[in-house]
Amino acid sequence: MILQRQRLAEILTVLGTSVGNKVMKVADFVQFKFDTKRGKLMISSTDFNAFLTVDYGELALDEVDVPDVFLIQFNKLFAIVKASTTEDVIFKSKGKVIIVRTNGEYRFETWANAADFPAHSFVYEEIGRWPVPEIMSAWNKVSIAVSKDVTRIAYQGVNYDGSFAATDNRRLSVVRSSGDDAAEPMLLPLAFGNVLKHCKSVVSVGPTDGNKTLVMVCEEIGLIASVRLLDANFQDYKKVLGMYKPGVVVKMAKQPLLSAAARLMVFSDALYKVVKVSLLNVDSTLYLDLDITHEGGGNESIEVEETNVENVEVGKQFEYLYHVDNLIDAVTAVDDPEEVTLEFQDNGFLWIREGLFTHVLTPMVE
Fold this sequence. Notes:
Layout: E1 2-4, H1 5-15, E2 29-35, E3 40-46, E4 50-58, E5 69-73, H2 74-83, E6 88-94, E7 97-101, E8 105-109, E9 128-131, H3 132-143, E10 158-160, E11 164-167, E12 171-175, E13 186-188, H4 190-196, E14 202-207, E15 213-218, E16 223-228, H5 237-241, E17 248-253, H6 254-264, E18 274-282, E19 285-293, E20 297-303, E21 306-307, E22 315-323, H7 324-332, E23 339-344, E24 350-354, E25 357-361
Antiparallel strand pairs: 1-6, 2-3, 2-5, 3-4, 4-16, 6-7, 7-8, 9-14, 10-11, 10-13, 11-12, 12-25, 14-15, 15-16, 17-21, 17-23, 18-19, 18-22, 19-20, 23-24, 24-25
Helix pairs in contact: 1-2, 6-7
């Protein structure tokens, strides 16, 4: 069997999204399977949370001298294919050994039974064809708020109900639908975004029977994927959005704020992530002041361009504590490359709003 090396490398890059499982050893392998009826080669991978299959395309079956179905350890094969310089990758079989030839000859002994690789049905009911750039943008804005706490499954994904929303119970990030796109809620795992980034223009999506998995079809790259939906109920994020009320608005240059926070981060560590944010009036000029005090410390002030506060008194106007990483994530998610608008409520809630995007940071208690 002779495959184009560049095409195979592209396919393995996509399949690498879903490889490996601490319990199921077969997930370390990639499956090669021939569709003899259509004369095509299908290449698949799984981590048992997502199942991916890419259609390599038509293949001359009379040139195939390997089993109809076989497994190869993914990491080793991908490393060889990426590092090779040949035009093609040649596969041959000799007994239970798969031989791969590029710049040299590499032998893969059979360590997993092809029959152990899970079969998967991609029967689904399409609920939409989504423009990938728009959905990817929304996903990137929202997924920053997904929790890393593995004990709280309801916070480990992105809720989709026509809008996208995620929270780790310290922050909420939402991209609202631009139209009347209400849908049955489903909690998407991070694997959804990992697959989506490989798609190009349009992705077709729809749940399978029982709404336990979501099928994604990216025809341009021959990919069909199934991701396991999270079995949990997302919190009522619309109730949180309904808590908004006008606060102190601070408009300022985006990059100086991000740069200051990045420099001050050197005084944070894995456990201490607190930044003190305050609004100062110094000689009739307003500054947003950032301060971190931990094993030393640092302080920077960034001039405010606009505010809705009138008759500002000299000195400190307010002071709240936030998670510094979360603050940087929220400001970075704003599309405007020049400016960012922060809105501080009396309870310390920090709102960042831009178009359909809303991000809410809750204050910390030191």
